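Hi P.,

Sorry for the delay on this. The queue was packed all week, but I finally got your sequence through. Input first:
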Amino acid sequence: MNEEIRLGTLSMRLLRPMHPFIAYSAEHLSAVPLRSLVALPVAILLLFTAGGHHLARDPIVIALIPVIFAGSWLITFLSGCAMGSLAMITKRSIGVFEIWLGLFAVMSGYLVPLELLPRWLSTIADFLPFRYMLGFPVEVVIGMSDRAATLRGLEAQWGPIAILFLLAAVTWRSGLKRFEAFGA
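Then the structure:
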């Protein structure tokens, strides 16, 4: 989105009857099958080497896994929309994304398992959306989260989704007012 705004090609998307966020979500979702083809063999290999006893067993928790994955995707997508829309407001929106990516790497469990973080930092991570993008879905799938913890985590996951939805909508509308300043 940032590149389309800088080059002025976002104008073509704005002329279409479909909101650009819908088009971006379709593009984003269309990559999921290919990513699954790459990740699935690795997951199967790990499942066979580690054993199936490391997976969630509670049927309610298993039924909630697609909802949790959808929530994880929505946090990622909506935060990208909000930061992408910032490119219409400021020239340094990439800097905001880089800060977001750095925080994600640490606070989601991507670089360091959340259990190894100091208690105070782990507590902060529980209130930020990063954990619910990666750490929480993994904990649920591998059975580290019981039914009650999964339901609490699901509730905590969908709070940031509502906030990011509003933030993306506000930055988009604010950005559209200034978009022609970038040569649209």
